[in-house]
Write a structure and sequence with these properties.
Blueprint (H helix, E strand, L loop, with lengths): L25 H6 L4 H13 L15 E5 L2 E5 L15 E2 L3 E6 L21 H4 L7 E8 L6 E8 L4 H5 L7 H10 L1 E10 L2 E4 L6 E3 L6 E3 L22 E6 L5 E5 L16 H4 L12 H4 L20 E4 L9 E3 L11 E4 L4 E7 L3 E3 L1 E9 H6 L8 E8 L4 E6 L5 H4 L5 H6 L1 H8 L4 E2 L1 E6 L5 E5 L21 E7 L7 E9 L14 E6 L5 E5 L9 E5 L6 E6 L5 E7 L6 E6 L25 E7 L8
Parallel strand pairs: 10-14
Antiparallel strand pairs: 1-2, 3-29, 4-32, 5-6, 6-7, 7-8, 7-9, 11-12, 12-13, 13-14, 15-16, 16-18, 17-21, 18-19, 19-20, 20-25, 22-23, 23-24, 24-25, 26-27, 27-28, 28-29, 30-31, 31-32
Bound molecules: MU-OXO-diiron and calcium ion (2 copies).
Length: 616
């Protein structure tokens, strides 16, 4: 989602603003040899091999080989670079091809209603359709097959003009249609004679802003989640990026939930509400005017906003199980979560909070995930939540958000309050304000990458956010000590987007979607980089840092979401808000522009023409 509704962090956490007087990139500091701790972890890859050109030509086995300067190199990137001409149609590398599936408003089940180039006309129709705002995704294979599985997909948002054909809802039915295009979907897909098709299935389902949900973890049952109205918890909104668990479930992450709330009367947000950006007008959806649940001035729903801003678990294989909101992972504007298994079999989740000057968090489960599940406990229900402080010497500290810390006990009554107001707790601990943390991903060597999409409001650089202002963003990475469960780490800056701008095959801005594949390739998706052509997906080599474009989207869209089959020879990615809803910009997926068709978010199925691994 391109929206950036300003800055909610009034804290003055700038622990390192006096350290770097110039816009010195972390990488340059490393090459200069001034950060020995980080070099011990990253030096071999970032210094010794920097500057070697990659080889051309893939062999379909995940590596491109070629001769360079008289010796063979083993590059991870072997495909022909994709141009980025802009315009209404997508572009892909000559070595690749794509199909388009599950556009917004197409039937959830084969034979169901289709908006057919128009708009949904009733809530009942929208509930039987693929939602809008395609974002995070995961492919859950059936019996580990590469041609059959359940695709879980987020439906982040849709603006009223595109969804309703008017800027503001006129009645509750309009609001219900808008609510129904939000949330997530589970769709069973099968490849048949080379093309992927949805299957009529009991697994196919929509989760929307009105689906019944349950809470677990320290805030479940707490008065902070109760309303005088007594309404049962329902709905998930602004589902941005995603994660998945080793036990086969999908995690969908609630980002800009504040935008759906508004006020029908005089409203001044409390400090705690303001920290989450809650305001009288919201983002202009107008839900609060016709559905009191979203009205910040309605005393019957005084705590409704506390029910949003969480990480939500969906079990794709159990279509009747309600989504579960995991309060142990804290409440903030969750972009996404990268899940890995740490020392002792603990579940670890790395999470970004996407707002200017907000933070990066880590959750560590209380115990081995298998033993927790054997005891009937979700591994996401109990654990420790930390926030990151990036120190200027290339090290960092995970600060625990616990009521056991006297600094937090002085302001909060219990752990439930700490988690519900995690942003404020993180302010008090001195976390490092970042340049809009978006996706995180854990590389096969244990490095964790995070996209910091941009921050035009930064006026003072620090080591981890070295550009002020930072209009094009960067990618930071770190390595946790103690197999992801420790409280310290080493970090460096992987890439500054501005360093790609002189290279036509690599130029990008505003990195957002991110995935590091099991070979170490770094897939980067962009949101906001239109000075560099349409938004796009690129692949970076973690050692040489070469970046090469593999795909470019259509006018006005962003590229987001990444999922693969087990063999990584099929990849699913999304176009979100093509043309920003304007048919004169694009009629996607109908080719061209200027026709009557409202452009539709959709999923691309990407394959290598030679059947090789995606990215090779
Ligand atoms: Fe939904 Fe921060 O992107
Ligand atoms: Ca973004
Ligand atoms: Ca995003």
């Amino acid at each position: 989602m391109t929206v950036d509704d300003g800055i909610s962090n009034p804290s003055t956490n700038r622990p390192f603003q006096d350290v770097l007087a110039t816009n010195l990139s972390r990488r340059k500091a490393l090459i200069g040899g001034s950060a020995t701790a980080a070099i011990a972890f990253f030096g071999a890859s970032t210094v010794a091999e920097a500057g070697t050109a990659p080889a051309k030509g893939g062999n379909g086995n995940g590596h491109g080989k070629g001769r360079q300067h008289g010796r063979f190199l083993d590059s991870l990137i072997g495909f022909a670079a994709c141009p980025n001409p802009g315009g209404p149609n997508p572009t892909i590398s000559d070595d690749y091809q794509y199909d388009i599936i599950i556009p917004w408003g197409s039937p959830l089940q084969p034979g169901g209603p289709d908006i057919d180039g128009g708009r949904p006309t009733t809530e009942a129709e929208a509930l039987q359709q693929i939602g809008m705002g395609h974002d995070g995704m995961h492919f859950f294979p059936m019996r580990n097959r590469n041609d059959h599985g359940l695709l879980c997909i987020n439906h982040e948002y849709g603006d009223n003009t595109t969804v309703l054909g008017k800027g503001f809802p006129e009645d509750l039915e309009d609001v219900r249609i808008s609510q129904a295009i939000h949330g997530a979907a589970v769709v069973e897909l099968k490849r048949h004679r080379g093309s992927w098709q949805r299957v009529r299935s009991n697994y196919n389902r929509r989760v929307t802003a009105n689906t019944a949900v349950v809470f677990d973890g320290p805030v479940a049952g707490h008065p902070l989640l109760d309303n005088p109205a007594g309404n049962v918890p329902a709905g998930t909104v602004n589902n941005c990026a995603n994660g998945s668990t080793p036990w086969g479930t999908y995690l969908t992450c609630e980002e800009n939930f504040n935008g759906y709330f508004g006020a029908t009367g005089p409203f001044t947000p409390s400090a705690r509400q303001a920290r989450y950006g809650l305001s009288a007008g919201g983002f202009g959806y107008g839900w609060h005017v016709f559905d009191p649940r979203w009205d910040l001035t309605n005393p019957e729903y005084v705590n409704e906003a506390n029910r949003f801003g969480w990480i939500v678990e969906i079990d794709p294989m159990n279509p009747t199980a309600p989504p579960v909101k995991h309060t142990a992972l804290g409440r903030f504007k969750h972009e996404g979560i990268a899940v890995t298994t740490g020392r002792g079999g603990r579940i670890v989740g790395y999470m970004g909070d996407d707002e200017r000057f907000d933070y990066i968090y880590k959750f560590v489960s209380a115990a081995n995930w298998r033993s927790m599940r054997a005891r009937g406990k979700s591994p996401l229900s109990e654990g420790r939540l930390y926030v990151a402080r990036f120190d200027d010497d290339g090290t960092g500290v995970w600060l625990e958000l616990t009521i056991g810390n006297p600094v937090l006990a002085a302001e909060f009554a219990d752990q439930a309050e700490v988690l519900t107001y995690a942003r404020r707790a993180a302010d008090l601990l001195g976390a490092t304000p970042m340049d809009r943390p978006e996706w995180t991903s854990v590389a096969p060597n244990g490095d964790v990458y995070c996209t910091l999409t941009n921050n035009t409001a930064r006026s003072v650089p620090d080591a981890a956010n070295p550009l002020a202002p930072n209009p094009d963003g960067h990618i930071i990475r770190w390595r946790d000590r103690d197999q992801h469960v420790g409280t310290t780490f080493e970090w460096d800056i992987f890439l500054l987007a501005q360093d790609t701008h002189a290279t036509a095959d690599a130029a990008f801005g505003s990195p957002d979607g991110l995935w590091v594949d099991p070979d170490g390739r770094v897939f980067i998706q962009t949101d906001g980089g239109q000075p560099f052509g349409n938004n796009q997906m690129l692949v970076a080599d973690p050692k040489t840092k070469e970046v090469r474009r593999i795909f470019a989207g259509v006018d006005g869209d962003e590229i987001t979401g990444v999922a693969v089959t087990p063999d990584r020879r099929t990849m699913f990615i999304n176009t979100q808000h093509p043309g920003n809803g304007d048919p004169t910009a694009t009629n996607f997926p109908v080719p061209g522009a200027g026709g009557p068709q409202v452009p539709r978010d959709a999923t691309f199925v990407i394959t290598r023409k030679d059947g090789g691994i995606i990215g090779s």
